[in-house]
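User: Structure tokens for both sequences below?

Assistant:
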Amino acid sequence: MVVEGDGLQVDGKKYVYRGEPADNYVYYSGMLWRMMSIDEEGNIKMISDETLSVIPWGYETNDYETSIIRGYLNPQEGKEHTGIVYALLEEPEKYLVPTKMCADKIAEPTEILGCEIAVEDYVGLMNVNEYFFANGVDSYLNTKTQQWTLTAKADDNTIFYVHTLGGIGNNTESTTDKYSYGVRAVITLKANTEITAGNGLEVNPYQITPLMDNEKSYALNEMKVGSHFVYENEIWRIVGFEEGKTKAIMMDVIKDEVGMPIKKVYSKKSAVYSLSKGSLGHYLNNEYVAGFEHPEYLASGTFYIGEFSNDTAYAIDKVKGKTIEAKVGLPQIYDIYTTNTLESDEYTSEIAYWTGNYKKSSELLTWVMRSGDWLFGDFATNEYAVRPVIYLNENIQVVTGEGTMEAPFEIMGVNE
């Protein structure tokens, strides 16, 4: 604990991590978390180290209680396609307690005094108080991406968010659109949770769930969402499962032999993802996979390619209302780990890539994921980079590795 500077500091009856602490990393449910604070009962509030997805905060109002983002984070009774983030968490009732949050609205991004709107959910967001108390722009909470806070503006319909420079803004809507920014989930670890490994550093985070048994063999579809593996000389990350098949996103965009991103037209005829000749989907499922050493690992799976727009109130059931069966698709809005935190390289100041969802088919408008985690609608006839999403069949075995970006799983087919 420190009195000032980076690290854990006393704040009334609780302890708060401020600045750029090096030892507040926890690995849980296939992802890294950063410890934010410890309450008087010893419970530890944590925030995901990265943005998990890019979605709108709300639609009709800026009331958190009825917002799109709350339903995305937590299951809601009688509502389909809710609790997507909660579903990723390993035995949440064993390891977590509901997170206590203050959803008060304020006129300006300053300190929230007291708390009139108290919310308790297993998964939440940080509010502007927590961002400022951690030292804001000069803290671990500033990831140089667009990320939502819990705090809405009191005198209009906007929401405060952290922008790429680390400041707080509320530019969250236009006359025709609600903007989408990054989601960093907040959870609270039980005080009596046992640490099974690690020292809290990024390279050796605290672990709280049982470690893998190195003497046992595992199938890829037994691994956690968020785990990394190597396939076709690229690192991929698991984003979900479907009937035993593993769905994964590449941790880069497709590049040429000298390492330059290959940009492709989405389609000259439609803003909807398809396998029609001349479309990006046709290229991915034919020319692209033709160069694979092990195309037999691939399996056909469901991609949700529906509309995401103001006209549909950005409803997730509309996104999932149109589907296509394919071996290779594109990042889908509302999917986990489809955020754009790819680093620019010597060739470009930004890597922007196509998503699998459209904004307005009649105007050939399709969504593009821009650097810094924000969505931008553009014409399907333009060119952007391509970040593929694949399905692998159920007969894939993990050979070695830890599932991290630094030590990804090595895999092989069971018949090899």
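Moving on to the next sequence.
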Amino acid sequence: MTDLPKIISVDDHVIEPANLWIDRLPSKYHDVAPRSHRLPVKEMTFIGGKFTAIPGEAGDAGDPVDWWFYEDLRRPLTRLDTAVGFARDEVILKGISYDEMRQGSYKLDERLSDMDVNDVEASMCYPTFPRFCGQTFSEAQDKELALLCVQAYNDWTIEEWCAPSEGRLIPLGIVPLWDPHLAAAEIRRNADRGVHAVCFSEIPSNLGLPSIHDADGHWLPFFEACSETDTTINMHIGSGSKMPSTSPDAPAAVGSTLTFANCCFSMVDWLLSGHFTTFPKLQIAYAEGQIGWIPYILERADAVWEENRGWGGIADKVLEPPSDLFRKHVYGCFFDDAFGLQSIADIGENNVTYETDYPHSDSTWPHSSKIAQEQTRGLTEEQIYKVLRGNAINMLHLEDYRAADKAAGISVFSS
């Protein structure tokens, strides 16, 4: 049995410490900035892709859980946010406190220890309270405060979460989505500190923002900044704030089965947008969307490009087959997709990355290495290296890891 390379996980999550924003924002904002309160739950439901939560009052019946308060928003921490350590049948829609959750969810040393247990050398973490691309701040009323909150989050994740880890935790920034020029400035501010990854929405129009097809080029300043700074645009399922479902009364399991769907829609958007013609260095990545669906979409997109581009509105901007664009610009990600790995030749072995999804309910922790061993059994040594490590190094411009692999005599294959 071949020893696996140490994993680089491109999709994990961090629960922000309760004092993150209070410690970093001026005191005049402390009554309205994101802040933590411990209160019981009055109501919590997740039906038809819609999450509803209402806090009780101090002294009400029920276990106290930790809530984020921000402007009019009341958002509890839940076991779905931080499920590791609970038995599967205990992973339910229920509030949780910082004391009850696994401490690696928000404490640095404990996170690194949990990564060691899991044979994970490096990890990139998506935010929790800001949501997967900073929608929380985009939806806020006070945009001056919201911009400070975005910058405070980025400062914290770079300076306190990632820097002390000596490269094991990889910074992933957020931007002020409501203003593409401010977003571009934040990309450059973070790039000056070595950040090469940013969150973005899989479907911005679901957030009430212009789509990536906007005729006036709304997002061009942001895309240009990402291209110039080698910043990969990362889109997590749910970053469009609407999870796939079939009806308002469908059980949550329907949406859970369809989580890949928005990634599918988004990838077609990008492949047929023309942005890869305008920005030939731009790279995008999808998190938690799995990969088994990709071959058919590439086949269909190529057929549309070949047969229908004359009337399809793409002839003058998509100048090569979408499947070629995919292999130059797009990364998929999986944690459990046997069919996808069987199709790796059709997807592209340079375009697949791995995740452990710690500490979410789908996480493979603490068995990620064992599961990866089973999943990659049919792959070559080169493909295993690329999927579990090498492609992440390329995607996130992890030059220190590339150099370390070479120095250690670990093969670094071409991409």
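User: Anything stand out in the second?

Assistant: The radius of gyration is 21 Å.
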